[in-house]
Amino acid sequence: MWTAAILAGGQARRLDGRDKSALQVGAVSILERQLGVLRALTPNILVVGPRSSDLGPGVRVVLDRVPGAGALGGLYTALMDAPTEQVLIIACDMPFVTAPFLTALARLGADADAVIPRDDRGRHPLCASYQRRIADHVKRQLDKGVLRIADALADLEVHDMGPDDLAPFDPDGRLLTNVNTHDDYDRAQRAAARQTPSA
Fold first, then answer.
1. Start-to-end CA span in the chain (Å)
2. Of 62, 152, 158, 194, which sees the most CB atoms within 10 A?
3. Model-level pTM greater than 0.85?
4. Per-residue confidence of the chain (199 residues) as pLDDT tens digits?
């Protein structure tokens, strides 16, 4: 059993401060798309970050334990608040994650400190599996002023879910798409329209 933690506390400066999780991609928001996938996989779902709306049964909202610490602070919060040893972190701006991919990621990450997908753009530490046992290590890194997840994980047992592992789950190359800019958002909307022409 594992916990899914959606990190939704970013400032989205390149999107004029908009709530990225609320951006509509296809017929629903990115967050709704993610929750639709996750509810079928685990009863343990966290959303890390401020939320004013009810997200439905089984979804617990938690605030950052270390305000202003970015994604690494969100990871630490998720590890501390998760009810399971394994936690899958998902950034709130990833509209195309799928159940088969997350299931495979969880299986690969069952024992390692962290398993991080890696494609031709590099590692994606904000869509990865982590073990709760690394929480103290993450907190020590935060206390030293480290904010980049890659830097914080340097001394841990980290495995890649490499391109060959990803290929069966990513035939169109959009699985790990992030919506960081207006151009990203336009591309995601076009991809969703191709995926679901009626949306």
1. 33
2. 152
3. yes
4. 999 999 997 665 666 667 888 899 988 999 999 999 999 999 999 999 887 677 888 899 999 999 889 999 999 999 999 999 999 999 999 999 999 999 999 999 999 999 999 999 899 999 999 999 999 999 999 999 999 999 999 889 999 999 999 999 999 889 999 998 888 888 888 888 877 443 3
